[in-house]
Fold this sequence. Notes:
The chain is α/β, with parallel strands linked by helices. It has helices at about 5-15, 40-45, 45-50, 55-60, 60-75, 80-90, 105-120, 130-135, 150-165, 225-235, 255-260, 285-295, and strands at about 20, 95-100, 170, 170-180, 185, 210-215, 240, 265-270, 280-285. The protein has a six-stranded parallel β-sheet with strand order 3-2-1-7-8-9, with helices on both faces. Strands 5-4-6 form a three-stranded antiparallel β-sheet, with helices on one face. The longest helix has 16 residues, at about 60-75. Bound molecules: adenosine-5-diphosphoribose. The site of adenosine-5-diphosphoribose has 23 residues, from loops.
Amino acid sequence: MADEPATARALLARAAGVVVFTGAGVSAESGVPTFRGPGGLWKAFRPEQLATPEAFARDPRLVWEWYGWRRDALAACRPNLAHVAIGRFLLTRAGVTLVTQNVDDLHERGALEAATGLAREGRLPAAGAAGDAASRPAPERGGGAAPLLDDEQPRAANAAAAARAAPIRLHGSIFHARCTRCGARTEHRAAVDASSLATLPRCGACGGLLRPDVVWFGEVLPEGALETAFAAAAAAEVCLVVGTAGAVHPAAALVDETRGGGGRVVVVDPGETAYDDVADVRLWGAAGEVLPGLLG
Ligand code: APR
């Protein structure tokens, strides 16, 4: 019986390009429910009532109430060892792309913890040093900001590094909102008062009703996100699949892009997935237990 973890590590070590593809399972150990697993959201709630444009048109209060509840629950969660391991991998390796189906912000928060840890170890690569993930431009600190104070510099450097390790988001973000009238997108973390239609979040530009900026069933994925993710997957020699059942398309087809390009597939999941028959290496375990050793 081949030593699967060692085989997976060797594949990852040799690969010039790697795509890390995650689903709800990567956040399970942070206390975020998955969708289809035991205690999953779709066991307790009906997606057609809460996660379709028709449901929002029918009852925006009910939909906002549910997303408000999920946001509050997420705010109490912390990134787990899997998020941090992926963040470190992106910050210290060239040619790694992270693609997620998740709408939570735990990859970004995990990347910040990773950057802070690497900085403390004196191992945080300078911008542009660690491959394409690091070559993404650092976020603007707002036009003409005052020079950073000494103790701010490390924090700002870590935040800039973490931003370069941000995921390609296929299903949007629960902490962003979009105007149903003018289409403006904005970060939105304020508490939602869903007690009446009048108290629901409104667009700062046109006053239109805001909706969660997530992809609902029957909707197209964010422009460019799928194309960018598929191109990275097609060019990758390894697709590392973490915590997704692979049940929802078109995202689930990302793995076929890597296989179509002759790449290998490594799957990390304690349960059965749609990729088990095509996996070159199958690691049956929880992401927070497997990834630190696999990527460290
Ligand atoms: N570590 C790794 N994987 C885990 C863990 C864990 N600790 N716990 C559960 N899993 C696995 C489950 O075995 C399952 O294969 O995570 C997977 C979660 O699958 P789903 O609940 O189907 O979630 P996901 O694949 O992300 O759903 C895809 O469906 O509802 C839509 O838009 C939503 O993005 C979501 C999409």
